[in-house]
Specification:
globular; 360 residues; six-stranded parallel β-sheet; 14 helices; 2 domains; two-stranded antiparallel ribbon; Dehydroquinate synthase-like, alpha domain
């Protein structure tokens, strides 16, 4: 008898693969901006650099970086102005033509611009934040404002981060508090991720999830240590922001740090543009989504209050009814990303949730 027609089972082999891009050099501490040339030399990225910075942040740190690199590199500086964001990105990409790598020196908008430019021009990116307002300083995603609201784009994760706590501690405390809120909101982002895993079969990275949870817990438990003009506070928050960015790189997406609370924030971007910082809106969203998950929403609220972050829409100039509309509109934001806000929230329930925020 011939065996020619018999299908033999193949030997099962492990065939998964994953590409993770993590920072090679991370320097955080007192007056470490002076280490920028050493980091550039260590990475050996080329002889020409494009520095992207803002009008104010150039005075804060951009000129210092320019001067530090002027003797060893061909330095071009591009001012990321407050004009049309997409046009600014296009102009910055043109400025990057002769550069071997890109350095972003500034706050969230500048860092996001630099990350997108580096990604679109296939160059490495070094992050030099002047404020710790959200986890974009270390992530592979960038937020760009448009007429329809903020959109999240793929971006180049930093190959290095140089975060000077003197500079970050000197920034307005509101920015640091916003960064804290963004990290504390990881608590609910991972609950939404787990929910989607159970209900929709979405792939889950236990490593990324655990790192994100641990990062949020550090700030949640140490909220009383976050003080204005404190280098210790700047150091603690910046480390947490970097850790959150690494969790996203491990996961290959922003899932470990972006759930229903972020969808709520992006909905507010559309309905009330210019009101509140990103992290502030995520913090308020996290109180609501933690309540829906049946978790310690009061603990999140109290931590945010201790840090100095807002806990109600009124504190960031948003009418309660607009917050209600944002909760209902959240399901239209990235509909492929399932969260607890996608489970059929009614208008009456949304109003009750917003009222709950003011409960003593």
């Amino acid at each position: 008898m011939s065996a020619g027609g018999i299908n033999l089972l193949r030997t099962k082999v492990f065939d998964k693969s994953k590409w993770m891009q993590l920072p090679r050099d991370v320097v955080i501490g007192h007056d470490v901006i002076g280490e920028v040339p050493t980091v550039c030399e260590d990475l050996d990225l080329g002889d020409a650099v494009l520095i992207i910075t803002g009008d104010k942040t150039r005075d804060v740190a951009g000129r210092r970086v320019e001067a530090l690199l002027a003797d060893s590199y061909e330095v071009t500086t591009f001012p990321a102005t407050s004009g049309d964001p997409l046009e600014v990105i296009r102009e910055a990409e043109a400025a990057a033509t002769g550069a071997g790598f890109v350095i972003g020196v500034g706050g969230g908008r500048v860092i996001d611009t630099a990350k997108i430019v580096a990604y679109n021009t296939d160059r490495h990116f070094i992050s030099v934040p002047t404020a710790a307002s959200h986890d974009g300083i270390a992530s592979s995603r960038a937020s760009v404002p448009t007429a329809e609201g903020n959109v999240s784009l793929a971006a180049e994760p930093p190959i290095a981060i140089v975060a000077d706590t003197v500079i970050i501690a000197s920034a307005p405390h509101r920015l640091l508090a916003s960064g804290c809120a963004d990290i504390i909101a990881n608590h609910t982002a991972i609950l939404d991720w787990e929910l989607s895993h159970r209900l929709r079969g979405e792939a889950l990275s236990e490593y990324a999830l655990t790192l994100s949870r641990m990062t949020a817990e550090i700030l949640f438990k140490n909220a009383d240590l976050i003080k204005p003009n404190s280098e210790e506070s700047a150091w603690l928050v910046t480390k947490a922001l970097v850790s959150s960015g690494v969790a996203m790189s491990i996961a290959g997406s922003s899932r470990p740090a972006s759930g229903g609370e972020h969808k709520f924030s992006h909905a507010l971007d559309r309905l009330a543009p210019g009101k509140g910082l990103h992290g502030e809106k995520c913090g308020i969203g996290a109180i609501i989504t933690m309540y829906l998950h049946g978790g310690d929403w009061e603990g999140i609220r109290d931590s945010l209050k201790t840090i100095g972050a807002p806990t109600t829409p009124a504190e960031i100039g948003i009418p309660d009814e607009v917050a209600v509309e944002a909760l209902l509109a959240a399901r239209t934001i990235r509909p492929e990303r399932f969260t607890i806000l996608d489970m059929g929230l009614t208008r009456e329930s949304a109003r009750d949730l917003v009222k709950m925020l003011y409960r003593e």
